[in-house]
Amino acid sequence: MLSGDEAIALAGWHANVALGTGYPGTPSTEILENFAKLGGRAQWSPNEKVALEVAIGAAFGGARAMATMKHVGLNVAADPLFTVAYTGVAGALVIISADDPGMHSSQNEQDNRRYAVAAGVPMLEPSDSQEAYDFLRAAIEISERWKIPVLLRATTRVCHSCSLVQPRSQRDIAQEASFVRDVKGRVMVPGYARLAHRRLRQKLSEMTEWNEECALNRVVAGGKSLGIITSGISFMHAREAAPEASVLKLGFTHPLPMRAISRFAASVERCVVIEEGDPYLVEAIRAAGIQVSGKPEMYRFGELDVARVRRILRADTSPEPAPPPGKPPQLCEACPYRVVFDAFRRLNCIVAGDIGCYTLGALKPFEAMDSCVCMGASVGVGLGLRHVLPPDQASRVVSVIGDSTFIHSGISGLMEMAYNPPPNGHVVIILDNSTTAMTGHQEHPGTGRNLSHEPTSKVVLEDMARACGIRRVQVIEPRSGSDTFEQALREALESGELAVLIARRPCVLIARELKEYEQRCQCGEKGEPCGAAV
Amino acid sequence: MNNAANAEKRESPAGPPCNIAVAGLGGQAVLPAADIIAGWGLRAGYDVKKSEIKGMSQRGGSVACDVRFGAQIHSPMVPVGEADYLLVLEATQVEPNRHVLRSGGVTIEPSLVDADKLPQKKALNVALLGALSAHLSMTEQQWLDAVGSAFAPKFLEANRQAFMLGRASRNKSGERQRATVGGKRA
After folding, report:
1. Domains and CATH numbers, chain B
2. Which of A132, A199, A265, A341 has its CB 3.0 to 4.6 Å from that of A361, i.e. a possible disulfide?
């Protein structure tokens, strides 16, 4: 019994994927962690864009590569995605997007099926762990056959649900990586890109034809009165909600097999499209002139489940019962960053926040965060506020960002700060707890340890800040009962300068592990401490 | 009819799935408890699915996990109002989760177990699993095997004691449940 994430990892291992890259993000994180445990070569990159670019390089070199990320991560990686669709690949490239309908741990519930259409890449959608395994294998085969990147789109209830998996019996033989020069195919200057775009559309049209007979789509035969067209986890809810219905279960959801869909729709009296999130399938199917009904707008929001699918089938738009509120998460009792949010409150700061556990500083008892948009946004948003607000407000604006988020995309904000300084300066606080805590304590380039917690080169945050051109850089250890941090913050705000305060203290949840890692890298060959331990 | 017996009728390979919702707070080992239940289901030869929400699980917030077993399971999520059993590891989480139970469903909560008799405080989860086990048809040995394989061997004896303590609380659980459902009907 495996989770969807574990099944994808196992499929990657069995397919002999040469390199897995990614940036941690719920619900995608466990894919690379498990791929590494199985023996696969897995790496955390500073962000999803870099992760995808590294995977593209591997696939240009003729190898099999996969890049994993959560849905919003694909926004960061969208730039390479759109153009690698043009270039294609020599080996195989699978991009795994783990969407989070219902926003269990995300800032939005964007539907990344739209990316497959926008970028022009084929897309597969598994509905359970067995399909997560099978579809990753199929994605690699499709990628190699058409020399094109493939989007494997999963959702929280596929990634984090466990069900039985029967893997294929043997591991594939590793493909030999080898560089073959193809300047016109890989260098996307306008003259070559125009040709590449036509090649991409040609591939998609061939794939559409292939998808008409593709075994990744199947019909569950049932009664004639109700037909359901569905994909992903919605298939499971639909089967349970309407066991008597005929179902067209789509696994290969871009480009869509419209003839097969049309045949199915014509074979039933009433045809309903059941899909979570955006009306992607229903719009495409209707645009092709096929008569189907979709879901009322209210079901665009949140996850589907069996009860909601029953309601959709009845076209029931009466208000849904609201579940009783659970207990919201909080910053840990012993979290060193509680004092930081206390200080923000006492100094009446306007706080441009960011993504991580510290976003919990927006909730009670602190309520000391005024914005949270996307990874790295705290710095830019804080600067924008500083530029336009009247001085009495502007001088209270701070940006707060975690260490992993700073590495991900805060550094470019810091360059902006030095390049276009607001008149009364600005203060950026980096909460450096030596880990990517929110997603379950993954390493990043600022910890000096790789995905498997082994020592590697380390980005020193204070050096980075100075290199960006910030002169007032201070490292402080936040301690409860001490006002050192608050004092430093007050002084930085009053100075009117550009300042970076690094509040550094390891996450309390990994204190024991950190000691282990440090001991591990001190017992090197000559017993000398390595760079990462210093 | 005893409501617990009514709940047991739902657990047959050919019938509808047996739905178990596990709830608690982050850090309480909700997910391992659900893993053990899923393990029991597998050992008993059922199709099993488990679905969990764990994004903020280490930050003390509500954590919930669904386990379903039967001949063939489709959705991994227990539909609201269709849980046969609600196993709650934290007293404050009973009310926020009660709505998942079907009418006549059984709540397994910390008050069922005499905490003073536990070999150690942490064994509460295993004791509650024991209380749940009394309602289901798998043999005592199947359950003990599943518990045993989930923990280090040195905890085996403590866990066995806790499990049996919980398993013995069955009658109490049935009585409590009748009272609750009776109250609702009134």
Report:
1. 3-177 (3.40.920.10)
2. A341
Strands annotated E in chain B: 18-25, 47-53, 62-70, 83-88, 101-108
CB atoms A327 and B51 under 8 Å = no
pLDDT digits (tens, 9 = 90+) for A230-284: 999 999 999 999 999 999 999 999 999 999 999 999 999 999 999 999 999 999 9
Q: What is the pLDDT of residues B116-166, one digit of tens each?
A: 888 888 888 899 999 999 998 878 888 888 888 888 888 888 888 999 999
Beta strands in A232-312 (DSSP E): 245-250, 252-254, 270-274
Ranges assigned E (strand) in A217-336: 218-220, 223-231, 245-250, 252-254, 270-274
Task: Supply the pTM of this predicted model.
Answer: 0.93
Tokens 């009670």: give the residue: A364
- Cα A354 from Cα A362, distance rounded (Å): 10
Q: Which domains does chain A show, CATH number per domain?
A: 2-169+180-211 (3.40.50.970), 218-313 (3.40.50.920), 338-533 (3.40.50.970)
Question: Taking a C-beta distance cutoff of 8 angstroms, is the pair A281, A217 a contact?
Answer: no
Q: Cα(A37)–Cα(B82) distance, rounded to whole angstroms?
A: 37
Q: Do B77 and A325 touch (CB under 8 A)?
A: no
Question: What kind and span of H or E run contains A98?
Answer: strand A92-99
Residues of A in contact with B146 (CB under 8 A): none
Q: Choosing among A159, A162, A164, A237, which should be mutated to test the B contact, i.e. which has the most B CBs within 10 A?
A: A162
CA-nearest residue of chain A to B92? Answer: A327
Question: Cβ separation of B52 and A128 shorter than 8 Å?
Answer: no
- Helix (H) or strand (E) holding B42, with range, is helix B30-43
